[in-house]
């Protein structure tokens, strides 16, 4: 299969790992990943290998080079078992971007500036062409808490938001003592869960700060409160979640 790039600055290397988007769904979400492999070439080869069953629409190399592997009209296989706003077929409603980075196995190497510049330019084009809302620019960890931890707590979400890509809340607060944490139960826990769920995370309002809740809070912190990722809820975590929820609905 060959096709011409949807993004003007991309070269094409077609992956066979794709299919039609289901239920005529159109992409309204950007899902960002890191490759978590030792090299970009290795990641590229895996995403194109007919037996790997994985792919993405775009891969962004460390030098900023962008490659398109699946046409945007098609469903690429990058999200796996995921959920956001109750929708479980994330592949059908998203565009997947793999960012070359060694990730946690390599102790979270920094993302080079020119790579992030390329990610921003690509995202800007996608957001404009597909009319994607800021709260729909997400990481793999947001839609698969406990299963996925990419693009990792060093990914510069704040820089992206400064360039108009995605939501971020940059208050001046600091990490504080936990207000809520594992093992607690009651109405405040239920309210926290409801707020997380309203924002899009897949968590039920059970009123119990269970393992699922801890993992979802951790995912939230990896994206929106990178200074401390402990799965507990302090004032700063709660304030950011509340303000982001308001911005998302604005
Ligand atoms: Zn991923």
From TrEMBL:
Per the UniProt record, one Pfam family is Amidase_2
Q: Which GO terms describe its biological process?
A: cell wall organization; peptidoglycan catabolic process; peptidoglycan turnover
One GO cellular component term, please give it. Answer: outer membrane
Instruction: Return the EC number.
Output: 3.5.1.28
**Molecular-function annotations in GO:** N-acetylmuramoyl-L-alanine amidase activity
Enzyme class, UniProt record, top EC level: hydrolase
Q: Does the keyword Cell wall biogenesis/degradation apply?
A: yes
**InterPro entries xref list:** Amidase/PGRP_sf, Amidase_domain, NAMLAA_amidase_2, Peptidoglycan-bd-like, PGBD-like_sf, PGBDSf
Which reaction equation describes what this protein catalyses?
Hydrolyzes the link between N-acetylmuramoyl residues and L-amino acid residues in certain cell-wall glycopeptides
Where in this chain does the record put each N-acetylmuramoyl-L-alanine amidase domain? 15-152
Keywords (A to Z) from UniProt: Cell wall biogenesis/degradation, Hydrolase
What does the sequence similarity comment in the record state about its family?
A: Belongs to the N-acetylmuramoyl-L-alanine amidase 2 family.
The name under which this protein is listed is N-acetylmuramoyl-L-alanine amidase
Organism per entry: Notoacmeibacter marinus
């Amino acid at each position: 299969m060959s096709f011409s790039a949807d993004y003007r600055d991309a070269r094409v290397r077609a992956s066979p790992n794709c299919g039609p988007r289901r239920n005529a769904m159109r992409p309204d979400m950007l899902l960002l990943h890191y490759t978590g492999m030792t090299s970009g070439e290795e990641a590229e080869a895996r995403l194109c290998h007919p037996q790997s069953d994985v792919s993405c629409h775009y891969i962004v190399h460390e030098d900023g080079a962008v490659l398109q592997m699946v046409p945007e009209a098609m469903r690429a296989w990058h999200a796996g078992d995921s959920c956001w706003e109750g929708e479980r077929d994330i592949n059908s409603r998203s565009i997947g971007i793999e960012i070359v980075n060694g990730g946690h196995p390599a102790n979270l190497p920094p993302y080079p500036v020119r790579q992030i510049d390329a990610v921003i330019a690509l995202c800007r084009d996608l957001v404009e062409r597909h009319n994607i809302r800021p709260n729909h620019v997400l990481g793999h960890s947001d839609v698969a808490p406990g299963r996925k931890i990419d693009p990792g707590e060093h990914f510069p979400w704040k820089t992206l938001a400064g360039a108009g890509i995605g939501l971020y809340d940059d208050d001046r607060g600091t990490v504080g003592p936990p207000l809520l944490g594992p093992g607690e139960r009651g109405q405040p826990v239920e309210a926290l869960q409801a707020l997380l769920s309203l924002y899009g995370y897949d968590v039920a309002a059970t009123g119990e700060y269970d393992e699922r809740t801890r993992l979802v809070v951790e995912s939230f912190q990896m994206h929106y409160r990178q200074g401390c990722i402990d799965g507990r809820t302090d004032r700063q975590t709660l304030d950011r979640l509340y303000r982001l929820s308001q911005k998302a609905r604005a």
